[in-house]
Amino acid sequence: MTTLSLSDQAIAILRGNDRGGYTVPTEGLYPYQWNWDSAFAAYGFAEFDLPRAWQEIETLFSGQWQNGMVPHILFHQKDDGYFPGPDVWGTDKCSGNAVSSSGISQPPVAATFTRALFEKDIAFGKEKLEALFDKFVAWHGWFMRHRGESGAICVTHPWESGRDNAADWDAAMANVDASNVGDYTRRDTSHVNPEMRPTKRDYDVYLSILYFARDNGWDEQRILDDGLFRVADPTLTFTLLRANRDLKWMGEQLGRDVSEIDGWIVALEEGVKSLWNEDIGCYDAKDLRTGLFAGNVTSAAFLCWYAGIDDKRMLPHLERFLIASPHAVASLDPTSPHYNPKRYWRGPVWVIVNTLIGIGLEDAGYRSEAERIRSDCARLIEGGGFAEYFDPEDGTPAGGGVFTWTAASWLAWVSKDPKEA
User: Fold this and answer.
1) 204 included as an active-site residue
2) Which of 52, 99, 168, 221 could form a disulfide with 294 if both were Cys (CB 3.0 to 4.6 A apart)?
3) pLDDT tens digits for range 90-135
4) Is 164 a catalytic residue?
5) Of 164, 170, 311, 382, which one is the catalytic site residue?
């Protein structure tokens, strides 16, 4: 199978998952527009259809709330095959937006990929960026106001992290009473082997946290004061720090005042330090209710370079991960008792996270490490197609198939010559 044929397949996946201005992650399993999935989609579209790439970002911001938040799901069309749908989230009366959506956000990678679109054709992109810039500022400001009280950025729901069932959330989730969620029917396990998905207990907790926020009108102050889950997260902290750096650069190209963004960058550079767990010598999630670290080394910690933090203390962990699995980077330390090579975020390799890690390593000058990750991604895709994620031990595809963000990552980073990337 040639690189060209794989690129053609990737383009066909993005076209096939296009629903007219936005892409779904994959048919059936995820029938709506997801936040960071769409940012990756734009990154991929930019390789062959730049106007369509900009449209993806514009459609994402069509669901922005009046308070600045950009939701993690936009329910553009009704689909009974997904749970929990818009009727469960109950956000229509508080979002200030006609587009039905979830009530939480997701890792803010959109500004970084929007910069990539802008740099491809600055003359074409300037008008597009002018219309989007203030919306990005409002979204990033929302994170700083409502998720940044510890210095680092926290999540109020495991889904907000993008790493739904990561071991980072286990202790905090164990403290959530999920006994009253009632009966419900999951749809995800009808599309994917249940052994590859979060457990029933996980879903009970997810819904319990959701119901609390919904029943309190998605009031951010109430969620801050009394919410069931609040954990400082390396993924959100590192991606927002990188996104703020890129937003500042774009603002400078437009001649905008970026002093507020400068302040956010300084605050996050300081806040990142609060995620360093001396006991394991690694960046780690921290439960803001108990003050306790999760105690896990995950792929999220390697996003430090993506955030512009060249922390050489992380290199031994990265080297260990590269040695531990034939296919790197595992989403959880393979030596962890919680490691499972096939269950979602508890071990499998995610090409999209590898792409972010690889971009960061290249930026920091760690070319050989980035190339190892790039070549591993290429082998996984060549052997297993454009799956949602992969087993780090035998490389078998897992989760959903013909996945938008895996195809986009192939087009924009994995298949690229290192010098071109």
Assistant:
1) no
2) 168
3) 999 999 999 999 999 999 999 999 999 999 999 999 999 999 999 9
4) yes
5) 164
